[in-house]
Amino acid sequence: MAENTENKIGLLASTSLVVGNMIGAGIFLVPAAMAAYGSIGLLGWLFAAVGTFFVARVFSNLSMLLPSVTGGPYAYTHNGFGDFAGFIVAWGYWLSNVTAIAVITISLVSALSTFFPILDHNKIVAVFTGLGFIWLVTWINNRGIKTSGNVQLVSTIAKLVPLLVISVGGLFFIRPANFHPFNSSGTSAFEAISATAAITMYSFLGIECGTIPAGSVKDPAKTIPKATMIGLLITTLVYVLGSISIMGIIPAASLKHSATPYADAAVVMFGHGAGYWASAGVALASFGALNGWTLIQGQMPYAIAKDRLFPPIFSRLNKRQAPYAAIIISSVFASMLMMMNFSKGLVEQFKFLSLLTTLCTLIPYLFCAAAYIIIKYEKEHLKTGGWVSAIVVASLAFAYSLWAVAGSGQDVVYYGFLLLMGGIPFYVWIAYKKRFSKEV
């Protein structure tokens, strides 16, 4: 029987989901954060990219072993370790998605304030602008994954253009003297590379996004692995070339104090008017990420609800096969969190919560690396070979993810653990209802 591809996305849209969700507004500030370490920070990018490569290989291989299973990290953890581990991963990941939507929306409003100064001075206008974008992408994603995939593809291309102009074009404006000193951190090379890799690794979060809507992807066993690895390649090239260009154009003494490094590089390259391009790039990057993560925040709880580990309302689909209830409920929570940032007394709490979301995204990488070996054995029973490479890939992905979790900081790990454990009462209630309904 021929596959019904009417409401499914292909390689381009899947790749744009990976790239679009990885390249958010944060990338525009990373070069300034790394400037204090010197050009050795470029090795930090490469270290993070290599570590992420092994994580990407784990997700690519899992998508071939379980090609049509929606939910990505949740589905793989659930298949490998059962209900409880699957629920904990999904619970934390869903919370991180909702908070990410709020953070991205704030970045989008901030970028637009360059063109509309009222957004910087009037909180009410800023809040309603943010709400407008959240509910615009909610409407887009409720029109089906084909529509949201097309929007993601267009927005990703639009955000890549200004980034590539600076990343590639900037290579012709480099001054070699700006790369000296190589290590200005005052620490050893190993410590400097570790520190810069810790800064950059968060820019690779989202590598798993191609696996999450697997049930809505054409030929997922081939499409998802390709989209994941191509997405990683594109993102790494943009990150590394962008950092080389900006470090080569702007002296480190100035760069480390820059709030808009891409804009400053654009001014050197094209004149003062070009600074607006960078703000437009931030806005485009934020909108693309907002659309992509909204797609994810619907697909993840939908997958959990189908396994009866979330309230059944999250599994409802509209006529376009979009999990409308999951998307709408998630957007309600994201709207509430976004408004928190504009309340003076809640800003610090919101910032800390956004740090916790990073941890809740990293934890699934650990579980999936471990689950990969279990699922591979269950599916192939040592018959096809390749076990040495599988163990090496899983081990390196696990080690890198564990290092990333440790690099989040003691407080973040502690409170992140409490946040994840906060889902246990919810799980107990869900598990009781699930078991009771079976007995009845």
Beta-strand residue fraction: under 5%
Protein structure class:
mainly alpha
Number of helices: 18
Total beta strands: 0
The biggest beta sheet is recorded as: none
Element-by-element helix/strand order: HHHHHHHHHHHHHHHHHH
Query: Shape from CA axes?
Result: globular
Helix content: over 70%
Unreliable spans are: none
Q: Radius of gyration from the CA trace? A: 21 Å
Please, what is the average pLDDT? 85
Describe it for me?
The protein has 440 residues and is mainly alpha-helical. 72% of the residues lie in helices and 0% in strands. The chain is built from 18 helices and no strands. It is globular and about 70 Å long.
Q: Helix and strand layout, with pairings?
A:
Elements: H1 11-22, H2 30-34, H3 41-65, H4 73-81, H5 83-112, H6 118-121, H7 123-141, H8 145-169, H9 189-200, H10 220-249, H11 252-255, H12 261-270, H13 275-306, H14 324-340, H15 347-380, H16 387-406, H17 410-421, H18 424-439
